[in-house]
Specification:
heterotrimer, A alpha/beta, B mainly alpha, C alpha/beta, A: alpha/beta, Rossmann fold, 12 helices, C: Rossmann fold
């Protein structure tokens, strides 16, 4: 069963001069077994939503249910939520603290109270998924490269084997190679485990490439929820809420304004090439 | 959010007290502290009390704010007041019930003590913490202590350390909050378990925080070098502190209060005593 | 030609605490002409940041082994240089770093912008003028008294740019200055860089791994594994799609599209780099078929 937000509001610093409403009456569903992209401008509440999903934040009003259970109903089970809904913060490498990478990845599973054999299995598994080599496991997390640190931190959450995995800007600050690498690995992980993955990102190009569904946050909650084709069909509306679309979608949109008609919204380069070639071929055949 | 917290208790504003030069405010605060300690007669306390009241009213700081600031010392204040009342055994006996004996001097000492603490806290916090930004205070201190630089005291360095600390407190607080949340999400339990366990949980926050602070320090040092920083010599200041005529008036007023306090001391003490004995 | 920086046969290796050498740059030859805008592209570890730090003497012979020469404003900076010359160069070559939080020194915006001029010992009146002028240049006027930690990442970076501008630099190096920003912040900083460039009195070097931030430069230098891999105008660089892919660097999506069409034998014009250009080309292509 999915994660469901029912009429959730969240207020920061309630009853202080700095009171600030981050979310107001939000309804939201995060489906199982797919990658959901969460996009929105800075300040639209993306990170707040992430922390509401695993119970780090408690809604000011409304309920958050995971697998049909209100996660804030039973205070004693609070920690279970952390293990069920894994949350990778932005720049997660800054949370590494153990003496070796291996111990750091094992930190979460250890907190779950698992036995040593199970912990070892999970650590090895998680390291394999994120592509950390055997030799870096015994190193100090402060002695490996930035890209490896990021992977180690993500492995630390994956090792808890959560049913839902939420990642806040998992690729930010990485170069194109590192970015494609980590996102591809996450996609493979999702496909193999069949869990729900939520990726928060500013990059429309990444969203178009790696997500199945997309949630667009506007100023007052969810602006749109749907497949990529549905989301990217209207670049002008997205612009209106301060978001952009992949450059390729912009090109196609502008070309349409110049009098060309495409059959479907295009948001990846591969699909665009395919469609344009089909149009060129198709029309060539008409001529003959 | 955590970055919204105010540093110290500074309340931005534009009251006459806000506008006094920070150096003068520092001097005035010192004068007020001295005055509260030399005051011993009723009149002198009354004078101090009125002077403080005027400062407070002019600063446009709300009573609520002031009360909030007093909270931490209320207990001590009440305790010492009672102590004075019940344990002073000089003067005339006013009241007796079993072992409780209250003497006139007990009452007098208690009132003095009470006023002394109130005046001390109110005048210094109105002058310094509430109406002077930490950075202005640092600048003021630097300016005032400048002569000490001549005998080798690194005044500028201390001031820079202070202001960078002030600058980074919100940043590091925000990071602490983030790291704590991240570790909680990995199942860290900060609030239950044995002392050992909790200490270990805190380690998961301290290590990353320390690493982060060091990273900030190294990067900031690079950035400062890139912007031509090479110590305090030859540096100028965007905002040069200039003493205005009114600043001197304020200093004069504070000095007058001190003089008044001293002058009032010997005579009035006798007068009040006389009144009580009758 | 008036070169602000001249790099000849430069190689550099970092020395770790155990004395082991880690090569970072190899045989670099680059000139940076006054008033131009150059983007240096490359992966993490390609040596692009090391190059910038060598130019600005944040990395020196103390940190490793330098061979070859770097002349900045006509002065050799790789060998022993007097403190005054080093200081002069650091003040003339401004640098905007990656993390916005780590380059803000003061607790108000105006004091932060004033930090550089104060170090130079400028007259307070002149500093005030500089603060007003540079905050306007980066579109942050009216924020003089704001607390920097309450600003957004993009705003903080623009404050940092103002702080560098206030020192009247001849060259500004942006070392991955947009890497930690959201798209709005990134756009604002890129717009500021473009405006600085169009005024023409300052040489700009940006270091980035975002391809679309390099398309507006006059010149693109691609570094790979410490060597100059490509050097040319954005058109020359980004149209070599295959070559960029071989070192897993991207090209703009629009270029990628036309490259795909070209490979299929359906396009033989110039590969476009910009959205509008691409849309027009595409419309022409599809209409021509009709």
């Amino acid at each position: 069963m999915p994660i469901v937000f029912d009429n959730v509001s969240y207020v920061y610093g309630e009853n202080t001069p700095f009171e600030h409403k981050a979310l107001d009456g939000l309804d939201l569903t995060i489906s199982e077994n797919e990658i959901t992209g969460l996009i929105g401008q800075t300040g639209s509440g993306k990170s707040t939503i992430a922390q509401l999903c695993n119970g780090l934040y408690k809604p000011t009003s409304g309920t958050v249910t995971v697998d049909g259970v209100d996660i804030n109903a039973d205070k004693k089970k609070r920690r279970d939520n952390f293990f069920r809904v894994g949350l990778v913060f932005q720049y997660p490498e800054y949370q590494l603290f153990e003496d070796t990478v291996e111990h750091d990845i094992a930190y979460g599973p250890k907190n779950m109270g698992l036995d040593d054999a199970e912990i070892a299995r999970r650590v090895a598994d998680a390291a394999r998924f994120v592509g950390l080599e055997e030799e870096s496991l015994s190193k100090s997390p402060f002695d490996i490269s930035g890209g490896q640190r990021r992977r180690a931190a993500i492995a630390g959450i994956i090792a808890m084997e959560p049913k839902y995995l939420i990642l806040d800007e998992p690729a930010s600050g990485l170069d194109p190679q590192g970015r494609d690498d980590i996102l591809t690995k996450l996609k493979n992980y999702q496909r193999e485990k069949g869990i729900a993955v939520v990726i928060i990102s500013h990059s429309m190009e990444d969203m178009a490439k790696y997500c199945d569904k997309i949630i667009v946050l506007g100023k007052d909650g969810v602006y749109k929820y749907g497949t990529k084709a549905e989301i990217f069909a209207d670049p002008v509306a997205l612009r209106g809420i301060g978001l952009s679309v992949p450059q390729i979608t912009k090109v196609m949109y502008k070309a349409e304004q110049l009098g060309v008609k495409f059959e479907r919204p295009l948001y990846t380069v591969a699909a665009a090439i395919k469609d344009v070639l089909k149009m060129l071929d198709g029309e060539a055949r008409d001529d003959t | 959010m955590i970055r919204d917290i105010t540093l110290g208790q500074y309340f931005p504003g534009n009251s006459p007290i806000h506008r006094i030069d920070p150096r003068m405010k520092l001097l005035m605060a010192i004068i007020m502290i001295v005055a509260t300690f030399v005051a011993s007669s009723g009149t002198s306390f009354a004078l101090l009390f009125i002077a403080t009241l005027i400062l407070f009213l002019l600063s446009r700081i709300s009573v609520k704010t002031l009360m909030k600031g007093m909270k931490p010392i209320v207990f001590i204040l009440i305790f010492t007041t009672f102590f004075q009342i019940f344990f002073t055994r000089t003067g005339d006996l006013l009241f007796e019930w079993r072992f409780i004996k209250i003497y006139t001097n007990g009452i007098i000492f208690a009132i003095k003590m009470f006023i002394r603490v109130i005046v001390l806290i109110t005048s210094t916090s109105v002058l310094l913490s509430y109406t002077t930004s930490p950075i202005a205070l640092t600048d003021g201190l630097e300016q005032m202590l400048k002569p000490l630089a001549k005998i080798g005291v690194p005044v500028h360095d201390f001031a820079l350390i202070m202001s960078i600390a002030l600058r980074f407190i919100p940043t590091l607080l925000e990071e602490t909050e983030k790291i704590m949340s991240a570790q909680k999400a990995r199942g860290t339990d900060f609030s239950t378990g044995s002392l050992m366990k909790r200490a270990r949980a805190l380690l998961a926050v301290f290590v990353p925080l320390l690493a982060s602070a060091i990273r900030h320090a190294i990067d900031l040092a690079d950035a400062m070098i890139c912007r031509g920083y090479r110590g305090g010599s030859g540096r100028t200041k965007l905002n040069v502190m200039k003493l205005k005529f009114t600043d001197f008036l304020w200093l004069f007023a504070a000095a007058a209060v001190l003089a008044g306090t001293i002058l009032c001391n010997p005579f009035t003490l006798d007068v009040i005593k006389g009144a009580f004995i009758k | 030609m008036d070169n602000i920086i001249e790099i000849r046969d430069l190689s550099f290796s970092y020395k770790d605490p155990e004395g082991k050498l880690h090569p970072a740059l190899h045989n670099i030859n680059l000139d940076f002409e006054r008033g131009t805008y150059t983007a240096i592209l490359g992966h993490n570890g390609s040596g692009k940041s090391t190059l910038a730090k060598l130019i600005n003497m944040v990395v020196t012979a103390d940190d490793g082994v330098i061979e070859g020469s770097i002349k900045v404003l006509g002065k050799e900076v790789t060998t022993a240089i007097s403190d005054d010359d080093a200081y002069e160069i650091q003040c003339r070559i401004g640098m905007v770093h990656q993390n916005p939080d780590d380059q803000i020194v003061a607790t108000t915006v105006e004091e932060d912008v004033a930090f550089g001029p104060e170090n130079l010992g400028m007259d307070p009146k002149l500093i005030r003028e500089k603060v007003t002028q540079t905050l306007a240049a980066v579109g942050m006027e009216g924020h003089e008294k704001s607390a920097p930690h309450r600003l957004s990442g993009g705003q903080k970076q623009r404050i940092a740019i103002a702080g560098v501008l206030a020192m009247d630099p001849e060259c500004i190096i942006f070392d991955e200055s947009t890497a930690m920003l959201d798209p709005q912040g990134r756009d604002a900083v890129m717009k500021t860089i473009d405006e600085l460039h169009s005024r023409g009195d300052v040489t700009i070097i940006t270091i980035t791994h975002y391809m679309n931030e390099a398309t507006d430069a006059d010149r693109v230098v691609v570094l790979n594994r410490g060597e100059v891999f490509m050097d040319g105008t954005p058109e020359e660089i980004f149209t070599q799609v295959e070559k960029l892919h071989s070192v897993s660097l991207d090209v703009p999506q629009v270029t990628e599209l036309f490259y795909g069409l070209q490979k299929a034998g359906k396009y033989n014009g110039k590969l476009p780099l910009h959205t509008n250009e691409g849309a027009e080309e595409l419309a022409k292509l599809l209409k021509a078929e009709r």
